[in-house]
Design brief:
DbpA/CsdA_RNA-bd_dom, 7-stranded parallel sheet, alpha/beta, 41% helix, RNA helicase, nucleotide-binding, 27 helices, Alpha-Beta Plaits, hydrolase, Rossmann fold, 624 residues, binds magnesium ion, binds adenosine-5'-diphosphate, 3 domains, ATP-binding
Length: 624
């Protein structure tokens, strides 16, 4: 008898479980399923994400539903549309051998009448987000007055998202005799309140330790200068050729900007945030699941509950405002028993946050250094060699072999190998040869490094937008405040020139200024901001020569190298955009064979060529 059978599950479920390839029940399933099957009881189950909670309630629920009765018998509430669809999909798979059982998803952003119609046709199980469910109830489109089971999935997340009122109201519309099963990763007081109010002597199950980070996730951090954040991200991606990751940013704007930069630089990336339409979000998630996207850049809200297996890395491009959010982020990897890595890119000034997180997750971070260009070349080279070694041979190629052999006949095996791998390797080498090492330079640069930036000190910036872009000082100040989400007095000494401007903020905002403004797309014009050596002084007049004192350039490196393409100052509509992108934009232009030529003519391109041989296979996602 297999383990699932021992738990008391019936034949049609066992068949489906076999199709799904589940071999053994997870801990929460082992604990919850027998209880729910054997008793009519309320239940509170605490388990981390990725522990198999859906099946823990899904299997017993399906077994208990009367599929011959078409009325609605169970309601599953879940925090997001994504999760709602995911659960619906899972339940459908679990119940595929149960004739007559229908499950309908009810969520915002899609036609409510269509959903109502589906419910009306007969749905024993409704999976809903609280907001849309409340809507349906108000309009009399559903009847949950006779349900037997109500499941609150990810209860802590639902309450986090402010659904308390909706949940209370929905539950009051259900019969008192129903059973309530509550699943949650954590047990904050609001969840306890719901449990107390709506549940009767619930059975309790706890899996693993409350609030502890998943054992399958290791945590690393990398210290970089604020302006090197993006370069660090790219290197981490290059050093992990098979990366399949969720990259977290703090704001929608950063999310969009980072994703766009990655796409421009040739990575398989896309943005996921609340400003996208539902259709766009669905498209992005589909590509991510299909692995056409290797780096999904997301906001915390949009990424809630993303359940994609085999995510190798979670990257905290910026740390979340609420440290607790870190747990939710890192839970996107290390799922279903797989190992995962959660990476944090931090600046020195944020280091204390790392210790706070360590206390919360009760796990230590490992400090690492961003790989040097040569290390990356080595990793890529070995990756390529392995790829070649493991490539399956399609015997179509036999027809061409005589001709190919003729070409290679004067080369020894050693020579041939050298040349083959060099094809790919040279691109990385050429790119990284010119790059400084962002980690090791940290300590060496003290002489040319702009003075250390501290909170409390004013910092002056040079920015490549000005009167020509229709700004006067008030408009620029408003634009900056809004774009950077800063307060009324946080931007000061704004001095607008024809093609460029200066402004000040407190040092505590420097990180934000650099990360948000750099690369910001202002109606097709790419904003470039640099820290000026000049602090703006008592009079901003003398900034006329600030063009030179916009000294960020002098410290060389990243920016300096871009000079040929980099448009600041007088180059309107900077060559930056057009000459870097024109050849990169068109979809499907991801053939790596085209790249070397493009690369060499571009010179200053920001991407070290093809990500790997895989790149050719995966279509480049559309920009959304
Ligand atoms: P949670 O709701 O706890 O975050 P899920 O129910 O979404 O977790 O399950 C996470 C993943 O694990 C899903 O892909 C699911 O199909 C898979 N899974 C669930 N139970 C098992 C099992 N017993 N064996 C193997 N995989 C499982
Ligand atoms: Mg779940």
């Amino acid at each position: 008898m297999n383990k699932f059978e021992q738990l008391g599950l019936n034949e049609s479920l066992l068949l489906a479980i076999k199709d799904l390839g589940f071999e053994n029940p997870s801990e929460v399933q082992e604990k919850a399923i027998p209880v729910l099957l054997e008793q009519e009881t309320d239940l509170v189950a605490l388990a981390q994400t990725g522990t198999g909670k859906t099946a823990a309630f899904g299997f017993p629920l399906i077994q208990k539903i009367d599929a011959e009765d078409r009325s609605t018998q169970a309601l599953i509430l879940s925090p997001t549309r994504e999760l709602c669809l995911q659960i619906t999909n899972e339940i459908k798979q679990y119940s595929k051998y149960v004739k007559g059982l229908h499950t309908v998803a009810v969520y915002g952003g899609a036609s409510i009448t269509e959903q109502a119609r589906e419910v009306k046709r007969g749905a024993q199980i409704i999976v809903a987000t609280p907001g849309r469910m409340q809507d349906m109830i108000n309009r009399g489109l559903v009847n949950i007055k006779n349900i037997n089971y109500c499941i609150l999935d990810e209860a802590d997340e639902m309450l986090n998202m402010g659904f308390y009122e909706d949940i209370v109201s929905i539950l009051s519309d259900t019969p008192d005799e129903k059973r309530t099963w509550l699943f949650s990763a954590t047990m904050p007081s609001e969840v306890a309140r719901i449990a107390k109010k709506f549940m009767f002597e619930p059975a309790e199950i706890t899996v693993g330790h409350k609030n502890s980070g998943s054992k399958t996730v290791s945590h690393e951090f990398y210290v970089v200068n604020a302006r090197d954040r993006y370069e660090a991200l790219k290197r981490l991606a290059d050093a992990n050729p098979d990366i399949f990751s969720v990259v977290f940013c703090r704001t929608k704007r950063d999310t969009q900007a980072v994703a766009e930069k990655l796409i421009e630089d040739g990575y398989n990336a896309a943005a996921l945030h609340g400003d996208l339409s539902q259709a766009q979000r669905d498209g992005v998630m589909k590509s991510f699941r299909g692995r056409q996207i290797q780096m999904l850049v997301a906001t915390d809200v949009a990424a809630r509950g993303i359940d994609v297996d085999n995510v190798t890395h979670v990257v905290n491009y910026q740390l979340p405002d609420e440290i607790e959010t870190y747990n939710h982020r890192s839970g996107r990897t290390g799922r279903a028993g797989k190992l995962g890595t959660s990476i944090v890119i931090v600046t020195k000034s944020e280091l204390r946050k790392i210790s706070s997180i360590e206390r919360i997750i009760q796990q230590k971070f490992e400090e690492k250094t961003i790989p040097s260009g040569m290390e990356i070349c080595e990793i890529q080279l070995l990756h390529l060699a392995n790829k070649i070694h493991d490539t399956e041979i399609d015997h179509e190629i036999d027809n061409y072999l005589p001709a190919i052999e003729e070409v290679f006949q004067d080369l020894s095996k050693e020579e041939l190998i050298k040349r083959m791998v060099s094809v790919e390797f040279n691109r990385f080498l050429n790119y990284y040869k010119k790059k400084r090492d962002i980690s090791s330079e940290k300590s060496e640069r003290s002489s040319s490094e702009p003075r250390e930036i501290r909170a409390g000190d004013p910092v002056r910036y040079f920015v490549n937008i000005g009167a020509r872009d229709d700004f006067d000082w008030m408009q620029l100040k408003d634009f900056l405040k809004e774009t950077l989400d800063l307060g009324r007095d946080d931007v000061f000494k704004v001095d607008v020139k024809e093609g460029f401007s200066f402004f000040n903020t407190d040092g505590e905002h420097t990180d934000k200024v650099m990360s948000i403004l750099n690369g910001f797309d202002l109606n097709g014009r790419r904003i470039n901001v640099e820290i000026s050596k000049n602090d703006g002084g008592s009079s901003s007049r003398r900034d006329h020569n600030g063009r030179n004192s916009g000294g960020g350039r002098r410290d060389g490196g990243f920016r300096g190298e871009r000079k040929s393409s980099g448009g600041f100052g007088p180059r309107k509509e900077g060559g930056f955009r057009s000459d870097r992108n024109s050849s990169r934009r068109e979809p499907g232009s991801f053939q790596r064979d085209e790249r070397p030529a493009r690369r060499s003519s571009e010179g200053s391109s920001d991407r070290p060529a093809s990500r790997s041989f895989d790149a050719a296979k995966s279509r480049r996602p559309r920009r959304s």
